[in-house]
Design a protein that fits this description.
single chain; alpha+beta; D-amino Acid Aminotransferase, Chain A, domain 1; Dna Ligase, domain 1; 6-stranded antiparallel sheet; 5-stranded mixed sheet; 11 helices
Amino acid sequence: MQTIVGVLRGGPSREHEVSLKTGASILANLPGERFAARDIYIDRQGQWHDRGRTVSPERVLRQIDVALIGLHGEYGEDGEVQKLLERFGVPYAGADSFGSYLAMHKVMSKMHAQEAGLLTPAFRHIERAEDSEAAAHDITREFSQPVVVKPLGWGSSVGVSIVGGYAPVLAAIDELFAADASGVLVEEYVRGREATLGIVEGFRGETLYALPTIEIVPPESDFFSYDAKYSGTTREVCPGNFSRVDTEELQRIARVMHRALGLRHYSRSDFIVTPKGIYYLETNTLPGLTPESLMPKALASVGVSLPDFLGHLVNLALER
């Protein structure tokens, strides 16, 4: 008998379109001889749909054996949909609700990195819009300019900007609060080479298998912004052109953060490699699985097909 796998995609986040692509990729690559895929679409208002009909989450979740989450951003990566799956006792691949929340909350994840003794860019957390002016004054005095301004809990570099000077910094902060960001993080801008590295649990005989590093080379006029990620203008070199020492350190840090955040099954962490050391940026608990995404490219570089990887994820979820 085939295992019924519910594939959750869409969702009420700013990454709705990317999530649809990840979900479509999962549906297209889930091994059909072992699994029966169930396409579960969640619209921008958070309403669930099954086979073209509006349904309650409870109804559709009682009809599946396990879930693969193709959601990105709010609701998908912040622990909310995981709480729902846990409430109805549905096994699922990826971090649990608390681990998802920790990783998505950029300040908490950075604090866990600091507690683990890792380098991470200096930062200022702005919790309320009314504190923006005072914070912008402090930031322009205390931080070298430019700085990185990002929303506290969005993904895919949505809303991230690199700006310098009081007025541009304040404008970037205000823009995020106006877009309903739950908070704003301002970081020192660390210049270096961008790297990302995926971790897969229980793979090839290793408890935490480290995939090859990927070096990210965005266009000269841009950083690894949302547009740079999905426009095809960024070069992604796998394995990255890093020294053996840096590669081993990237693998170590990715494993450290996977454990420190209490994650499960798989994750992908982002870094800046500099002559002074490697700076941890953040961890993605549901890395994209589109044809343009980084995780599938790293898997392919070591001879792992997406169908094999998805089958492994389902097995991990069912072994809980």
